[in-house]
Amino acid sequence: MPRPDPRTARKAPDGTLPVPLTGVVPPLCTPLTPEGGVDSAALRALVRRLLNAGVHALFVLGSSGEAAYLSDAQRRTVVRVVTEDVDGRVPVLAGAIDMTTARVLDHARAAAEAGVDALVVTAPFYTRTHPAEIARHFRRVREGVPLPVFAYDIPVAVHTKLAAATVLELAEDGTLAGLKDSSGDEASLRRLLAELRGRGLLDRFSVLTGSELTVDGALLAGVHGVVPGLGNVDPEGYLRLYEHARAGRWTEAAAEQDRLAALFSITDAGPEETMGRNSSAIGAFKAALHLLGVIDCPATAAPQTPLDAAAVQRVRALLERAGLK
């Protein structure tokens, strides 16, 4: 099986996680059975497909993995299945995402026991939280579980935009190993990268973009890699984009980014009048994986609305246009 590129995989003190973590890190979808259980066989098939493509790491229990919809037992199943199947071939990052520090620590300990290499943690949510409290949250997680912690900046889900000052403080004191930026605020990300570079932190603090549509620009600005939900469907496309960018072939990178942007239209396949945008996006990823023969069932977790037949046909047409079907 492919391993992380040795030119970029300098080891962290724990001996496993490259520092900084670079490359293409797909956030795994969680295949489900028609009854709503975790489909372990399909999850293994997806893992092997991505490993065979040559991805640099895997991220489980993020937004694309429907972590917010899974029970604690289902989350543990996902982490166990993936870590067993990966068997150390690439780093595995696990989302430890919940409303409070105590619950995040429970998820983090379970993930650590399963053998993951790093944790991905949002700010606390449900109640309004001060930046000082957010910093304390990350510190307590880092102190409570001896694994690298990546901050997950996703204000659309947790209703808090991580302040640059907080990220910089936690990067400098070693609390955070990196950032997954899904804020959609490209200007803020660019300013943060400039500040990290000025402080000499980009050689030990990983910045990963979660935006499928602006990867070429983010790599040019200095991010280390990408965490693309669409990478479940077309990992090879993101790997080509990453390699073009790393080699300075920006014209080729832009062309690949344009192709992927067109394919990303699958996330709009579901009709807005009957389903939420998250249901449409996750449903489209799973429909695509089902059409490609990777998973047996395209079901999404309740109460999300499934794609109807017309939406699945739109996904099929876009796969064909992208050369994938």
From TrEMBL:
<dbReference type="Pfam" id="PF00701">
    <property type="entry name" value="DHDPS"/>
</dbReference>
<keyword id="KW-0456">Lyase</keyword>
<dbReference type="InterPro" id="IPR020625">
    <property type="entry name" value="Schiff_base-form_aldolases_AS"/>
</dbReference>
<protein>
    <submittedName>
        <fullName>Dihydrodipicolinate synthase family protein</fullName>
    </submittedName>
</protein>
<keyword id="KW-0704">Schiff base</keyword>
<dbReference type="InterPro" id="IPR013785">
    <property type="entry name" value="Aldolase_TIM"/>
</dbReference>
<dbReference type="InterPro" id="IPR002220">
    <property type="entry name" value="DapA-like"/>
</dbReference>
<comment type="similarity">
    <text>Belongs to the DapA family.</text>
</comment>
